[in-house]
């Protein structure tokens, strides 16, 4: 929506005479594009405050702000507009209500557990075929912030709007309804997601239906295409508009490419809005070591809309994203090549076949490559061509599940309690970098790594948020200081060496974290060392204690609460003494994942979230009060099928003896990939086509064999080692160990794919 500052102020019950025109409502300072047309809303969250970024955005060209107070550094600035409100988040909602009131059009409100985005995108594609000017929620912007930001996109000439509304607790939908004010309601499939936020499944459904209070028509179904057809009929349009609209994919994958390239494959609807979102995702992964390449196909747009104007907008997005190299594929984008900046290295061709015939992998080197187009098969083939040679076994990491788990634990915490997100050991085996980028966007207070090298790798890849190094014993102090890594300190000698090195490198007030020994019997200062510790700290200005922390030994042991309470008491006494004798504030943290769930009164200033972040609870299911999502899925592929008679022996040592005529599948994954040999000889099963298939014989270094006699399997079928159908907890129980060990044992040679849904 295009509004003046005067109109925005009016919508918020304030006054302004400014005629400055605004087209962009920004809440994330990192997504700044059109500075001169932007109003920044400085939202306060549980762990961050948008007011911190006002000065930076002003320096970046922004001249309009919605704030709760003018930051001191900005007082006296006369060439910017500040609209001061009581609550910025509520102001965004009010502003969206005002924007919604300016249009009288069909507005489709979609809610449910699953299928919201699919129904929205099916309708969007069909309505574009009908020549309608459509505004819809970008991707799955359906939260209390996402809905107002989506509604802001309404324009005076919009003909139809489609908005998703998501909730996870009772009492939220009425606020969503006030913003969206749908005229047509859609309820998609209801599942168990977020059941914990409601008294019952029935109360959750009743809460979702509140969105439809004033709707003329409401449609409820678990069939997404049938829902879309019903809505088209309600709009007086033929459901046949859905003919030719393919399956909707919401996947965005990140994985390694040839020649040190990094590939982003975005399968979401290929239109300008989705491209803008994908480019923003790409920009957050930029590094100085890679140039930025866009491989883009023809885009979906309204029937009859001028193609030149569509690609002129694309050209603007390409410039704003800092693309160094662009390859356009398709007849339409090629015909509009003249609108693109000649200073950007650009090539255009008519088809993906032309690309595949013209390019080989030697022409791509150290590039961050975004691949997006309407022709799925052709663009998938481009992606396959540019992928690094991959092992047939894949560890898929669902970044949206990471966010969901983070927020699930966030819901158990006080608003001011910070989260230290554990990404040590390469993100428990999943790969630290993409998790770090995701958690940085979520507003985690700290990341925690085990050793300096892990922290250096994150810094080199563009991670800017604070990082604690838990085991920083090192001689490489230069790296520690150069990359701004904050060490945990657990001995007087180590502290003195660190102070000496800080002096040598000219550092003052350098953040450190004091590790206290309260019962783990591993590392840390014990009580009788506190006086010496305080004396050393008081005598220097080279380091400053940012936090004091300890590790719980038995938080997940339900029969050892007395020991845990003793640790709490020791920690309280030690930190009280430490904080009382040092002249500055020191944060405290002791809770791990299990502790977050079991000891809400011991949150202190921060908590450390580890295995729960990865969708694995350290507590029994009946003691886990939140819903966690599976983050990691390890799969492989059937590469051979053999029929063997009863009595045949299989594998090394002839340990697998067939008791019947059997069909045996060979799978290219073994103990060198992290599959423990103790899973062999029938001790564990893999899931193929929904069936549990026991492992036969000994597991080899690179292969293993499974019995598929009782199901229908063909070469090329996918095998799930662990994931949604094969819980990692089951494998851990087989070994008499914890899921951490199974997850972190996955070999680096197993290909990782990171995706957003």
Description of the molecule:
The chain has 757 residues and is α/β, with parallel strands linked by helices. Strands 16-15-14-17-13-12-36-18-27-35-32-33-34-31-28 form a 15-stranded mixed sheet, sandwiched between helices. Strands 25-24-23-22-21-20-19-26 form an eight-stranded parallel sheet. It has a five-stranded parallel sheet with strand order 8-9-7-10-11. Strand 32 and strand 33 form a beta hairpin. Helix 4 packs across helix 8, helix 9 packs parallel to helix 10 and helix 12 packs parallel to helix 13. The longest helix is centred in the last third of the chain and has 21 residues. It is globular, with a radius of gyration of 28 Å.
């Amino acid at each position: 929506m295009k509004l003046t500052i005067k109109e925005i102020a009016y919508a918020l019950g304030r006054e302004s005479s400014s005629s400055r025109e605004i087209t962009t409502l920004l809440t994330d300072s990192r997504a700044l594009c059109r500075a001169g047309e932007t109003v920044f809303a400085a939202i306060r969250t549980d762990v961050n405050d948008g007011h911190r970024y006002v000065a930076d955005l002003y320096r970046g060209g922004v001249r309009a702000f919605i704030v709760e107070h003018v930051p001191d550094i900005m007082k006296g600035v006369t060439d910017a507009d500040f609209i001061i409100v009581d609550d910025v988040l509520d102001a965004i909602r009010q502003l969206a209500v005002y924007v919604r009131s300016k249009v009288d059009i069909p507005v489709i409100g979609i809610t449910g557990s699953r299928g919201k985005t699919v129904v929205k995108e099916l309708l969007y594609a069909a309505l574009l075929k009908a020549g309608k000017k459509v505004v819809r929620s970008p991707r799955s912007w359906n939260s209390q912030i996402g809905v107002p930001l989506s509604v802001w996109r309404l324009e005076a000439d919009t003909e139809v709007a489609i908005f998703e509304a998501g909730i996870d607790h009772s009492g939220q939908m009425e606020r969503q309804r006030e913003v969206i004010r749908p005229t047509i309601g859609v309820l998609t499939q209801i599942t168990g997601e977020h059941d914990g936020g409601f008294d019952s499944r029935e109360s959750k459904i009743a809460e979702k239906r509140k969105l439809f209070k004033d709707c003329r028509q409401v449609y409820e179904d678990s069939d997404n295409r049938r829902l879309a057809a019903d809505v088209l009929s309600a709009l007086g349009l033929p459901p046949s508009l859905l003919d030719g609209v393919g399956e909707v994919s919401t996947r965005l994958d990140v994985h390694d490419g040839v020649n040190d390239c990094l590939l982003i494959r975005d399968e979401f609807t290929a239109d300008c809005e989705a491209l803008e979102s994908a480019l923003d995702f790409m920009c957050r992964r930029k590094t100085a070591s890679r140039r930025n390449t866009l491989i883009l196909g023809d885009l979906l747009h309204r029937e009859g809309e001028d193609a030149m104007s569509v690609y002129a907008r694309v050209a603007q997005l390409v410039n704003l994203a800092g693309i160094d190299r662009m390859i356009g594929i398709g007849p339409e984008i090629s015909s509009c090549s003249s609108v693109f900046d000649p200073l950007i290295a650009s090539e255009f061709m008519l088809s993906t076949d032309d690309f595949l015939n013209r390019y080989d992998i030697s022409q791509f080197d150290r590039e961050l490559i975004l691949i997006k187009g309407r022709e799925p098969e052709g663009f998938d083939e481009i992606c396959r061509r540019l992928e690094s040679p991959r092992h047939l076994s894949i560890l898929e990491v669902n970044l949206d599940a990471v966010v969901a788990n983070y927020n699930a634990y966030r819901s158990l915490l006080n608003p001011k309690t910070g989260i230290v997100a554990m990404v040590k050991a390469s993100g428990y085996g999943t790969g630290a970098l993409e998790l770090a980028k995701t958690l940085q966007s979520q507003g985690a207070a700290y990341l925690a790594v085990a050793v300096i090298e892990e922290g250096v790798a994150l810094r080199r890849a563009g991670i800017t948020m604070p990082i604690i190094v838990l085991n920083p014993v090192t001689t490489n102090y230069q790296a520690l200081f150069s990359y701004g890594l904050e060490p945990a300190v657990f001995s007087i000698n180590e502290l003195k060496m660190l102070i000496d090195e800080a002096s040598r490198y000219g550092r003052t007030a350098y953040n450190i974290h004091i590790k206290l020994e309260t019962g783990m019997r591993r590392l840390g200062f014990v009580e009788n060392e506190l006086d010496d510790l305080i004396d050393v700290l008081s005598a220097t200005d080279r380091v400053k204690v940012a936090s004091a922390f300890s590790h719980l030994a038995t938080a997940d042991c339900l029969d050892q609460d007395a020991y845990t309470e003793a640790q709490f008491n020791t920690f309280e006494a030690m930190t009280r003494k430490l904080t009382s004798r040092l002249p500055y504030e020191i944060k405290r943290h002791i809770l791990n994942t299990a502790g977050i769930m079991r000891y809400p009164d011991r949150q202190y200033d921060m908590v450390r979230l580890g295995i729960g972040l990865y969708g694995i609870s350290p507590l029994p299911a009946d003691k886990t009060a939140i819903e966690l999502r599976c983050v990691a899925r390890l799969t492989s592929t059937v590469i051979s099928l053999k029929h063997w008679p009863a009595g045949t022996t299989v594998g090394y040592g002839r340990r697998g003896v067939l008791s019947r005529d059997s069909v045996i599948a060979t799978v290219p994954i073994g103990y060198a990939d992290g599959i423990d040999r103790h899973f062999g000889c029938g001790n564990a099963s893999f899931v193929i086509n929904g069936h549990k298939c026991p492992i036969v014989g000994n597991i080899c270094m690179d292969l293993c064999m499974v019995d598929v006699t009782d199901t229908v399997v063909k070469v090329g079928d996918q095998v799930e080692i662990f994931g949604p159908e094969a819980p990692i907890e089951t494998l851990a129980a087989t070994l008499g160990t914890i899921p951490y060990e199974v997850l972190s044992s996955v070999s680096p040679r197993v290909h990782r794919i990171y995706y957003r849904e």
